[in-house]
Write a structure and sequence with these properties.
Structural class: alpha/beta
CATH superfamily of the largest domain: nicotinate phosphoribosyltransferase
Helix content: 25-40%
CATH class of the largest domain: Alpha Beta
Number of strands: 18
Strand order of the largest sheet: 13-12-1-5-3-17-18
Number of helices: 15
CATH architecture of the largest domain: Alpha-Beta Barrel
Shape: elongated
Strand content: 15-25%
CATH topology of the largest domain: nicotinate phosphoribosyltransferase
Number of domains: 2
Length: 391
């Protein structure tokens, strides 16, 4: 038995790739074909209902390409983008980086898909907190990457214990039903949590294990009083009916008994529709599967230019737009102009280029931002776009 996961060494060596890239490299080497190209990463069509997506995963992509004889241009990580815009361009001899296309696409699609869904949820939630609880939906080997993608997308906190080690993010969470069932009593489980867990951890008690949510919420408030920060409703769909009515009952009951300070957190099957329905009456959302398993941001990679006779020649397969491209943007918003990378033409002075050089001949030439800086950048842009239409 084993964990069927690729090692970092294998990824960096290009072993984690598709067989036809291995065969392509063999053929290019056997025929001595040193073809200098520009490969562009882009999205031809966003998922239905999506007007924008979040470009994420760049740091890992650069880590994979660093030290290879290539030059890389890219949008900054966390940039909101639209369909048919270049996200990253790799320039170099095809034989030197052909093995890495599979891994690069996997990194960028994985990160961008999760970060985009997180950003949509956060935009809809507004000032209300969004906590990411989605690790159980994916293989544990990629837990830090999943938490990183969600946090870049704008969630306020992640639950992964290892994220403090790998990302410097202090995990947040409440308690599972298993704790309450193990004690056989909500009150005993809540009391044990309060006695054992560090005082700087907010006392948020799960209130839907044995009794009605309204009854358990009041029980928790009476037990902990001012120490109770909030209650979490994880009501299963089979018992829900109207989740809004349940929350209204809980809020009303806490308020009339003098517990207006107690916040309400809702989790379990939360997606965009539920956020819109409940955002005016809850204080935080625990969101898992909808962010962890989102619609795919279908990034593809295509040769768009070849270097021949001392000049770059636009060329690509049919159905694609030839020529390496640049995006100029005027903020606020996504007011974009797409031009050729080397021949931008006349672009208004208040439009700024998005793609910049990150690697030159294998050397990193641009300082990378921290995870907090990337998240802040995403939130700034989210404030400039309209709410997404719920799927």
């Amino acid at each position: 038995m084993r964990f069927y996961i690729a090692s970092e060494e294998d990824i960096l060596k290009g072993v984690v790739t598709d067989i036809y890239f291995v065969r392509t490299k063999r053929i290019l080497e056997a025929k001595g074909l040193q073809k200098k190209v520009r490969v562009e990463f882009h999205v031809a069509k966003l998922p239905k209902g999506y007007d924008w997506a979040v470009f994420a995963g760049l740091e890992e992509a650069l880590y994979l390409l660093r030290g290879k004889p290539v030059t890389v241009y890219a949008m900054p990580e966390g940039t909101l983008f639209k369909a048919n815009e270049p996200l990253m361009i790799i320039e170099g001899n095809l034989v030197d980086f052909i093995l890495y296309e599979t891994a690069l696409l996997g990194i960028l699609r994985h990160y961008s898909s999760i970060a985009t869904k997180a950003a949509r949820i956060k935009k809809l939630a507004g000032e209300k907190k969004v906590l990411f609880f989605g690790l159980r939906a994916l293989h544990p080997a990629i837990a830090p990457a999943v938490d990183r993608a969600a946090y870049i997308g704008g969630v306020d906190a992640v639950s992964g214990y290892t994220s403090e080690k790998y990302l410097g993010l202090k995990p947040q969470g409440t308690m599972p039903h298993a704790l309450i069932i193990a004690f056989g009593s909500q009150i005993e489980a809540w009391r044990a949590f309060d006695e054992v867990i560090e005082p700087d951890v907010p006392r948020i008690m799960l209130v839907d294990t044995f009794y009605d949510e309204r009854i358990e919420a009041l029980m928790a408030a009476q037990l902990l009083g001012d120490k109770l920060y909030g209650v979490r409703l994880d009501t299963p769909s089979s018992r829900r009916g109207s989740m809004r009515q349940i929350v209204e009952e809980v809020r009303w009951t806490l308020d009339i008994h003098g517990y207006k300070h107690v916040k309400i957190v809702v989790s379990g099957g939360i997606d965009e529709k539920e956020v819109i329905e409940l955002r005016d009456i809850v204080d935080a959302f625990g969101v898992g599967t909808s962010i962890a398993m989102p619609p795919s941001i279908d990034i593809s990679a295509d040769i768009v230019e070849v270097y021949e006779n001392g000049a770059w020649k636009p060329i690509t397969k049919r159905g694609k737009m030839p020529g390496a491209k640049q995006v100029y943007r005027k903020r606020p918003g996504l007011n974009d102009v797409v031009t050729l990378l080397d021949r931008p033409g006349e672009v208004p002075s208040d439009y700024k280029p998005l793609l910049k050089k990150y690697i030159e001949n294998g050397e990193l030439v641009e300082k990378l931002p921290s995870i907090e800086e990337i998240r802040s950048y995403v939130l700034e842009q989210l404030a400039e776009v309209l709410e997404p239409k719920p799927l």
